[in-house]
Amino acid sequence: MAFLTWYECAFILKSMIVGERGQVTIPKEIRDQFGLVPETEVEFRVVKGAIVLRKAPKKLNLAKWKGRCGKTFASLGYSSVDKFVDEVRGR
After folding, report:
1. Are the C-beta atoms of residues 35 and 28 closer than 8 Å to each other?
2. Which one, of 33, 57, 32, lies nearest residue 45 by Cα?
3. Nearest to 31 by CA among 55, 12, 7
4. Are residues 90 and 67 in the same domain?
């Protein structure tokens, strides 16, 4: 991750006060620019001695896909996806 540029620091230099419960308000311009709406998950990192907040990457919900390929693989003669993967990999 590259360190911050001068125009990114312009926002950071705005003074904010940490509340009793460790909360701060993210300026509206920044929330709008990065799509930070209520319930948006964010991450905190320490980069070169600075605290960096970033929008957390979306997590894929793979559970909804479980079992979707079973019939297709069965029609190809495989008893499971694992058997197909093993054959493709030459095992």
Report:
1. no
2. 57
3. 55
4. yes
Boundaries of domain holding 83: 62-91
Element (H, E) at 32: helix 28-34
In this structure, are residues 34 and 55 in contact, taking their beta carbons and an 8 Å threshold? Answer: yes
In total, the chain counts a number of residues equal to: 91
pLDDT value for 45: 92
Question: What does the block give as tokens for 44?
Answer: 């905190």
pLDDT, tens digit, 9 for 90 and up, residues 41-88: 999 999 888 888 899 988 888 788 877 887 888 888 888 878 888 888
pTM: 0.50
Q: Which secondary structure element, helix H or strand E, spans residue 73, and what is its range?
A: helix 70-75
Q: Is residue 68 part of a domain?
A: yes
Distance CA 67, CA 5 (A): 47
